[in-house]
Amino acid sequence: MTAFTFNDIGLDELKQGVADGSLILVDVREAEEYAAGHIEGALFNPLSKFDPAKIPLAPRGKKVVIYCRSGRRSVTAMEMARLAGRGDLDTHFGGGILGWLEANLEVEKGL
Predict the structure, then answer these.
(1) pTM of the entire predicted model
(2) Which CATH number do you get for residue 23?
């Protein structure tokens, strides 16, 4: 359980943010998972080597959203980011890639 408050973005808001470019997505799954299919444009920053410094600061009007397979690793990544002083990395898509795929949404393949 985390010791801080984080935000969970819903599927509709995530889809809108991907469509209009208002989100910076960060996928914290491992390389083979990311290569098998990720949300288009998502940055790759696997939890095993997670480095919050590699995530750009979101310009005004944009939000960084972290996601993983089902929501657990993204919570861990947000906590790691908070401990590293990145309080701006406090939003995740709790449904993860599984929620995205269940909605029959497309993924990009490869690294």
Answers:
(1) 0.93
(2) 3.40.250.10
